[in-house]
Sequence to fold (449 residues):
Amino acid sequence: VKNKEHILEELYDYLSGEMSESGRVPAEYHLQHCKECNAECDKMRATLAGLSAVIYAPSSDRSSEFWNEFPVAVERRLHANKLGTRASHWVQWWGKSVDGSPRYRIAVAIAALAVGTMLVMKWNTREQHTSSIPDGGRIDMPLQLVDQRAQKYFRQSGVLMVELANRKHYNGKPNDLSLERRVSRQLLDEARFLKQQPLTPYTAQLMSDMEPVLIELANSEHHSEKPTVELLREGIFEGNLLFKVRMAQLAYDSTARMRIQYASLKE
Amino acid sequence: MTAADEQHIIHRAKTGDNGAFRLLVSRHMKQAYNVAFSIVQNHHEAEEAAQDAFVRAFRYLERFREDSEFSTWLYRIVVNVSLNRVKKMKRRMSRETDGSHAIASAASDDVHTHENSDTIQHFERVLHDLPTMQRAVVILRHLDGLSTKQVSSILRCSEGTVKTHLFRGLRNLRERLEFIRQ
Fold:
């Protein structure tokens, strides 16, 4: 500290006792001879005293349950973030792979989706033909009814998965999963039935992917503790089930819509 | 936990060990929350900012070169995330209301209130009304007990700038209080 210069910006270090000995001695000398800095020093001392009384750690406002849940919430975000990153990678890949204006890229994406839907429908039709071959204990159903039941199955599964994925933060109380457990048992029964029917390989595979989560849920205790919910959530995120179920739902919805349109055209 | 322990945990977290990262979160979450709160002045936003910062820290952990303390590196992320949230809040508020003062008054509804005298409440209000950087420096330096060097590293500015913000922040605080008392 030079004695002729004001030391206003050094006052905090001086008052908080954090100034080194080599800085403190000239600062004290300066304060003795500079009325302006001395007055400022007194005012800052009073301000700091007031500040000490009012400043607090906002974290102390939060409950211990909040802090127990905090790392879990961060992990949940990490999982969600990974899904988002994957999606953004796909978007980036799409941007790099398809040249042209954004409108052109969107048009190509829509066309690809339409072709995909048609392929699914085509596959369904092919499966319908092969399903006419009699099989052991299998109950053959009209393809339209199979599709309707699969559509309902995926709609219910979607609701269940979303509900589990968005399950409220663990608040120290056991989670009541009785309703979810009942639904998961119904879904398992339905999947067992549907697997006997002509399904696309994608649909059958997705049902098999969902099975461990549904079995885990169906076998959970009446009042499930946190680890079960976390385990289920992990299964959903790791298997990317929310996205897959949603896609299956969309495919079955569009198939049903096209069937209605086709029927109205025939009329 | 010693510095060597923390270093070991960071190495494990860098290899993708979620358990190690959870330990880091548990160790630094309260301080990160306080840092975020000092900027956003709102419990909900502080929670969001602190959690978002941890997610980013995990994602970019490879980039942590260990030439500074992990906490300093982490708080820098918290500060960046929080400042971005403040910008968004201001944009949102300015769309919803004409006055930029709304943020401070809205935020102050959510802050801790003391049962002490009016002076303390004035102090609180005035502290929250300080410009963001001045308030952040005052709180980081005075409440969190971070050194000028640490604060400068977190805010990516020189130690001189930190001292200037600190001095101006404290002087602003005093002048505003005097104005209220008059």
